[in-house]
From TrEMBL:
Residues 689-762 form the ACT domain. GO terms for cellular component: plasma membrane. It comes from Prevotella communis. Keywords: Kinase, Transferase. Residues 415-476 form the TGS domain. PROSITE patterns: ACT (PS51671), TGS (PS51880). CDD domains: HDc, NT_Rel-Spo_like, TGS_RSH. One of its GO terms (molecular function) is kinase activity. This is GTP pyrophosphokinase.
Length: 762
């Protein structure tokens, strides 16, 4: 036998031992779990996967089968799932990486395991088109399957966790990509499913690979303060232990230290140093209740005992006992003042609550009588409500892949508030939810006709952000309908998806109307509605899609007349109509008819040249304003803090700097962002909308319109006032020159009696 043959044999023996040891640990942990003992089925899946991946190695050099075993180990030991999930974890890469198909898996292991494996298998080809994000496509398929069986996403999180644990073997650019995806989607998803331990590790590993230097600094400082922290922990818990023993509890007290990622995040948000983070240490009390049915009462008994030892912080008590978080988390948090003068948070949990906090959704099954291993018993909890919301998002496809990801991301809220209905029913909402979010969470009709709300019996606008404990009564009007600006008022995915769906339906009706108007106009002049004619019309109005053409005609923002016939027939070339390029939110201020007749033709949109200096600001004035695009998301007007964005066709869009779309562009396309300055001289009008609210009385509307129209000589384009129970809500569309005009109008209106709220709508 040659040396090479000897080395190969030794390597095979070492691999064999590595694989067998890992599999034996998996089986032992499974046998020690609460599940039915289907060792034969797991063995069958292991042998099948082992054969399918034979001869393949990971970048780390270990046999590939070690990855599926590790994922199955996480699924079994850290999430607490059973044989179906363990088998699916062992098989999760077989279809993607080998010649075996989902049908092969179904024939050997049944439809349930095959369905889960299919959901875990990445897809090729596009359901969103060639330009779509592969991440979005894969995530959408994952969620589609998840809506049928939640174990798909739990196994995927386990898969991602092992990939993060072994990310050292990947090149740097791949590390950044995977770490970024993990922090953006998978860590919030793990949190939303109650997998706090896994969520923390995912965040920490992402931080480690994206910011290795900062991670190393915080790790070093944590190590330097470790001895002092242990000493503080021992001194703080000593009297607590004596009290718990006196009360006769079986308990465990754990020291909980903030993760490097959590510390770094707080340093960034609060703009403080490591030494200024005072809540690095926390204490967790885990007890076995004397009576399972009275575990909540026993938590409060422990709380009372603690407050006899230490002073508590009255504003930092968190009762998750009677109102568990949406993912099932239960505990009582209290912050106590130690003898060293430090505030220390104490988390009080029963062993059941602790298991749910560690293993999330899966741990619920252990405490449900007759829970099925092959499925989840239907339970009307907030988690199922969340899953239903995911289904609604999936049922209403987003036209853009990244919009879809954003919709899902919106729904993975990590911070929650409790809000009450007028009848005292409690609703769990994401932090920063608005009145409009709440309205849509109750019913789509309430949301679509919402005009405002009474929060704690006080009138508030649609955009008002709610806080825990608020009691909310939604005010509606049948004459009020969804507005495009509402997208900027909502935080939850459900509300955003509903609003966008309604706007699309409304747009389709407008497009149909526009198409009919165009057909009638062309027929009147005996022009055939051919593709060439439609293309010329699109070019005239500077739109790329016929839907946009029909939309503009239906809204009367695109106007055609006899003077356009030759161009439509292709007989002569003409510059685009001034309705194009997004130019429908302002009109020239012309003092005389003669000047209007002499008005120059519309200039073409500015195209950014190859050697354009992106460091210098661009100045917007009356002469060049038509060369830029004003998208419908935020409508900046002179005086607004504005930025420019170079789009894929090298044209420049103008956005408010606070616009949500602009925030996304800044994060994703930083090299395309331009500084914008205004150089306007009150010779053009722009659209602006203000909202009014207050106590209804006779003559109020007349006072408002008199100030705006007569005293300030500002044109009112549209005025909508609704009233209910003596409270009115009004929206006024105006033509103004700039931001100063809006500010002056608002200042003048503040002098009107009974006007309680005046604000500009973006």
């Amino acid at each position: 036998m040659t040396d090479d043959e000897q080395k190969l044999k030794e390597q095979e023996a070492a691999d064999e031992k590595l694989i067998n040891d890992a599999y034996e640990k998996l089986i032992n942990d499974y046998l020690n779990s609460r599940h039915r003992k289907k060792v034969d089925l797991i063995g069958k899946a292991f042998n099948f996967a082992r054969q399918a991946h034979k001869g393949v190695r990971r970048l780390s050099g270990e046999p590939y089968i070690m990855h599926p075993i590790a994922v199955a180990q996480i699924v079994c030991s850290e999430i607490g799932l059973g044989s179906t999930s363990i088998c699916a974890a062992l098989l999760h890469d077989v279809v993607e990486d080998t010649d075996f198909t989902v049908e092969d898996i179904e024939n050997m292991f049944g439809p349930k395991i095959a369905q889960i494996v299919d959901g875990l298998t990445k897809i090729s080809g596009g359901i969103f088109g060639e330009q779509a994000s592969a991440q979005a496509e894969n995530f959408k398929k994952l969620l589609l399957t998840m809506s049928e069986d939640i174990r798909v996403i739990l196994i995927k999180i386990a898969d991602r966790l092992h990939n993060m644990r072994t990310l050292d073997s990947q090149p740097a650019n791949k590390q950044y990509k995977i770490a970024g995806e993990t922090l953006y989607l998978y860590a919030p998803l793990a949190h939303r499913l109650g997998l706090y331990k896994i969520k923390s590790e995912l965040e920490n590993l992402s931080f480690k690979f994206e910011h290795p230097e900062e991670y190393a600094i915080i790790e070093r400082k944590l190590e330097e303060t470790r001895v002092l922290r242990h000493q503080s922990f021992d001194e703080f818990t000593q009297p607590i232990e004596a009290a718990l023993q006196k009360m006769g509890f079986q308990y465990e007290i754990k020291e909980r230290v903030k993760t490097p990622y959590s510390i770094w995040s707080k340093m960034q948000k609060k703009h403080v140093s490591f030494d200024e983070i005072y809540d690095i240490l926390a204490v967790r009390i885990i007890f076995t209740p004397k009576n399972r049915e009275e575990e909540v009462d026993e938590c409060w008994k422990i709380y009372v005992a603690l407050t006899k030892i230490y002073k508590y912080h009255p504003d930092r008590i968190r009762d998750w006992l009677n109102n568990p978080k949406a993912n099932g988390y239960q505990a009582l948090h209290v912050t106590l003042m130690s003898k060293q003068g430090l505030w220390i948070e104490v988390q009080i949990r029963s062993d059941r609550m602790n298991e749910i906090a560690e293993q999330g959704l899966a741990a619920h099954w252990k405490y449900k009588e007759g829970a099925e291993e092959n499925g989840i018993t239907e339970d009307e909890t907030e988690l199922n409500e969340w899953l239903r919301t995911i289904k609604e998002i999936l049922d209403d496809p987003q036209p853009d892949a990244m919009d879809f990801l954003d919709a899902i991301k919106l729904n993975l809220f990590s911070s929650e508030i409790f809000v009450f209905t007028p009848k005292g029913e409690i609703k769990t909402m994401p932090a920063d939810s608005t009145v409009l979010d709440f309205a849509f969470s109750i019913h789509t009709f309430l949301g679509s006709h919402c005009i405002g709300a009474k929060v704690n019996h006080k009138l508030v606008p649609l955009s008002h952000r709610l806080a825990s404990g608020d009691q909310v009564e939604i005010l509606t009007s049948k004459s009020h309908h969804v507005q495009p600006s509402w997208v900027n008022f909502v935080t939850t995915a459900k509300a955003k998806a509903k609003i966008e769906a309604m706007l699309r339906r409304a747009n389709r009706e407008i497009q149909k109307k526009g198409e009919e108007k165009l057909e009638n106009w062309l027929a009147k002049y005996n022009i055939e509605q051919s593709p060439a004619v439609l293309d010329r019309l699109c070019k005239m109005f500077d739109v790329t899609r016929r839907e946009a053409l029909y939309q503009g005609i239906g809204e009367n923002t695109f106007l055609i007349g006899e003077k356009d016939i030759d161009e439509i027939k292709g007989k002569k070339k003409k510059h685009s109509n001034n309705n194009g390029g997004g130019w429908r939110k302002f009109v020239p201020f012309v003092k005389a008819k003669k000047e209007e007749e002499k008005k120059e033709e519309e200039p073409e949109l500015f195209i950014v040249p190859e050697k354009f200096n992106r460091k210098k600001p661009i100045y917007i004035n009356e002469k060049n304003i038509r060369q830029y695009i004003f998208p419908d998301c935020c409508h900046p007007i002179p005086g607004d803090d504005t930025l420019g964005y170079i789009d894929n066709r090298n044209r420049i869009e103008l956005h408010k700097r606070t616009c949500p779309i602009a925030n996304k562009l800044k994060a994703s396309f930083g090299n395309r962002i331009l500084d914008v300055k205004w150089d306007m001289h009150k010779t053009m009008f722009f659209d602006a909308t203000i909202r009014l609210g207050g106590i209804d009385r006779r003559g109020l509307v007349n006072e408002v319109t008199t100030i705006i129209s007569n005293q300030m000589s500002v044109d009112i384009r549209k005025l909508t006032f609704t009233t209910e129970d003596g409270i009115f809500d009004g929206v006024i569309d105006l033509r103004v020159h700039d931001r100063d005009d809006v500010a002056e109008i608002i200042d003048r209106l503040k002098e009107v009696d009974d006007l309680k709220e005046i604000s500009q709508i973006m």
